[in-house]
Amino acid sequence: MQTWALFLDAYRELNARKLFWITLVLSGVVVAAFAAVGLNERGLTILWWQLELPLNTTVISEEVFYKSLFVNLGIGFWLAWLATILALVSTASVFPEMITSGSIDLLLSKPLGRWRLFLTKYATGLLFVTLQVAVFCTTSFLVIGWRGNAWEPAIFLGIPIVVVFYSYLFSICVLLGLITRSTIASLLLTLLIWVLVFAVHGTESGLLMARINADMNVESLERDLHRIDEFREAAEAEDRPLPAWIRGLDQEREAARTSRDRWRLAHRIAYGVKTAMPKTSETIALLERWMISLAELPDREGEEEPPATGALLSQPSQRVDPQELNMRLAERIRARSVWWVLGTSLAFEAVVLALACWIFTRRDY
């Protein structure tokens, strides 16, 4: 009963804040934008306006179109960025205000363990986001079912995914709030750490792309060398000159292998650093992985046939196909284990919360 009373009181406090209702109204605006956008064989429609665009139902189905809107705009942009910042602004003061003189004295005078008080307050902060996301996902489910004729229960996976994503940042905000005792300082430092996490994610993704590009470059060189071997042997037997670029192909392959090894090492280091940090981007991307398969996305242009051997003798082939590079990158990222994405992130959060709880229970107020 004590825990429930604390939980209810903290919820009423959050519910009384204007940002709760502002965020809820903005979520409704985003859902209304989903309902206003349509797709037909001529392109996009916005209410009664028709836009003639290459993106139409001959390229992508209405079902995938609306699911992509929900995942990329609703979850990836609105909930994972703007709504999260508003939620942090609203909940950052929970612990700094609680440990101020007078408030903490009243709470500690009750026969209630400090760890239970800490976890109850923490759960209340997560409740703010849970209610917002639940309303957003429910209305999005109805809109996507009505407009896209796709009743997708997987949409409700967005609730635990976004709450878990937010918990990474909120745990950091709680720890900083207990250390600094300042709402502004804890909020700004949390946003700074979020930017750092995003920078590490971008660095690792860029290095992964460079690594895959280097792998594909080596594969292309080895294919070319294999296909011109018989012509090279015949030319050497007849003492006929070969094009200059063919004579240097072996050296080019060795240089490409050296470059590949360097990119692999750099990526392994970045991957190790990233493993120890919360995976904010990957956590949100789980929803897209579960709702939209790569096979549902618009088909790539047909792959070109490898050039004939005679063509190789006059001109080297393109080493790396950008479309194939992007496809391999997407496949590699999607192949990462859910346990790696969530397990290591939750382990990070557990360490941060344990430290914050230890500070809260040991500090003399």
Entry keywords:
365 residues, mainly alpha
What can you tell me about this protein's structure?
This protein has 365 residues and is mainly α. Helix content is 74%, strand content 3%. The protein contains 14 helices and three strands. The chain has helices at 2-15, 18-36, 62-91, 94-98, 103-108, 114-147, 158-180, 183-237, 244-247, 249-275, 280-291, 309-312, 322-334, 338-362, and strands at 37-40, 43-46, 49-52. It has a three-stranded antiparallel sheet. β2 (43-46) and β3 form a beta hairpin. α3 runs antiparallel to α11 and α7 packs antiparallel against α11. The protein is flat and about 100 Å long. It starts with a helix and ends with a helix. The relative contact order is 0.11.
Provide a count of the helices: 14
The N- to C-terminal Cα distance equals 25 Å
Largest beta sheet: strand ordering? 1-2-3
**Roughly how much helix do the residues carry, as a percent range?**
over 70%
Question: What's the alpha carbon Rg, rounded to whole Å?
Answer: 27 Å
- Categorize the overall geometry: flat
DSSP, total strands: 3
Residue ranges: pLDDT <50 for 5 or more in a row? 300-317
| Biggest pleated-sheet summary | 3 strands, antiparallel
Strand percentage: under 5%
Structural class by secondary-structure content: mainly alpha
